Amino acid sequence: MFVSTSSDEQSGRSASAGAADPAPRPSRRVFSREYKLAIVAEYENAPNGEKGAILRREGLYSSHIIEWTRARDAGVLSGAAGESGAPVKRPRKSAEQIEVEKLRRQNEKLQADLARTRMALDIMGKAHALLEGLSESAENDGPPTTS
Question: Which value, to the nearest 10 degrees, does the dihedral of the CA atoms of residues 38, 32, 60, 56 take?
Answer without folding.
Answer: 50
